[in-house]
Amino acid sequence: MRGDDVPRSLDEALDMAAQAFEDGDLEAARTAAGRAVTIDPRSAEARHFLAAALAELGDHEGADRQYHEALALAPDDPEILLGACHMVLDYAGEQDGFAEVVEIARRGAAIATKKNDDDLRAEFLLAEGGALLELGSPDQALKVFESAASLLPNHPEPHLQIGQALFHLLRLEEARASLLRALSLAPELALAHWSLALIAERMGDLEESQRRFRRASRIDERGFPTPLSLSEDEFDEVVEQALARIPNAVKEKMGNLAVTCEPIPSEEDLLSDGPPLPPTILGLFRGHPLGEKQSPNPWAHFPSSIVLYQRNLERACQTRTELVRQIEITVLHEVGHFLGWDEDDLSARGLD
């Protein structure tokens, strides 16, 4: 920003930030929004602009901090509440963050109800449902998404998200119907095609699955790149490379813990312990943790083992190098379960 371009007032700085967003110049938006915050640190709008720019530029910690500052200044501003929700849903991966989204979204929905604004309420319901899905509560998420669909019956997003929740609940035919409904309203929804590919795969229609994967990649190659596809022997070789990278101190604790590979999780795997696990899980610990004498887990009476799901792992990575690293992380994550660590322990070790 040149000296003669430096905004002198809050309004001028906000106008420059808004114009920069419209032009797609995120660096300029961050600079102008930062200037607005300097001029008036108590401007919630300035902090909102700065948070949005930081999120888009990848500074998620900075964005989170600015959103919290903005919410402290304007706790009932719907745009800031929605922005805070989307920042976590789009860019973050912390369980605590998703729990906060549920709280913020419910507050926003209550404000929208008072305003008698159904569109706004539906947006908050979609945010709440998305967070519940990330928190492993697809049954609760489904109810929230259905409420959003009742408000926006002809908008594709609620039907898309209903399809996601039903897929996580393994209600495949219903999920497929919802996703097709979303596509009837918006044919170029890459996520809908990708999700239909996963459903077709689980239903045994590999030709349809590959067709849908290719369609999703054509629509949004960056968001849905063509999955890796290795032979069983090639994948086994990558697994061996990943296991060789595991520290000896961890290998000693693994003992006779077997590591096996399967294409995708079976229904028995996904329903083995409480609510359904996401069908996209990368691996699973079968058995019971060290020192645990009894367990309701149906795998508990078998020798403990770790299973890796080849196709899910391939879809989570874009290169062979990434795949080696992801397999290593997945094995370490499941070894953590074998050792009795919970999700908080795993997260603290960078294995979530």
Topology as H/E string? HHHHHHHHHHHHHHEHEEHHH
Question: What's the number of structural domains?
Answer: 3
Tell me the name of the CATH homologous superfamily of the largest domain. Tetratricopeptide repeat domain
| Distinct helical segment count | 18
The CATH first-level class of the largest domain comes to Mainly Alpha
Structural write-up:
By secondary structure, the chain is mainly alpha-helical. The chain has helices at 10-23, 26-39, 44-56, 60-73, 78-91, 95-115, 118-134, 138-151, 156-168, 172-185, 190-202, 206-219, 232-244, 248-254, 267-270, 310-315, 320-338, 343-348; strands at 258-262, 283-286, 305-309. The chain has three domains: 3-159, Serine Threonine Protein Phosphatase 5, Tetratricopeptide repeat (Alpha Horseshoe); 160-226, Serine Threonine Protein Phosphatase 5, Tetratricopeptide repeat, CATH 1.25.40.10; 232-348, Zincin-like (2-Layer Sandwich). Helix 7 runs antiparallel to helix 8 (138-151) and helix 7 packs parallel to helix 9 (156-168). The longest helix is centred in the N-terminal third of the chain and has 21 residues, at 95-115. The two termini are 40 Å apart.
What topology does this entry show?
Elements: H1 10-23, H2 26-39, H3 44-56, H4 60-73, H5 78-91, H6 95-115, H7 118-134, H8 138-151, H9 156-168, H10 172-185, H11 190-202, H12 206-219, H13 232-244, H14 248-254, E1 258-262, H15 267-270, E2 283-286, E3 305-309, H16 310-315, H17 320-338, H18 343-348
Parallel strand pairs: 1-3
Antiparallel strand pairs: 2-3
Helix pairs in contact: 1-2, 1-3, 2-3, 3-4, 3-5, 4-5, 5-6, 5-7, 6-7, 7-8, 7-9, 8-9, 9-10, 9-11, 10-11, 11-12, 13-17
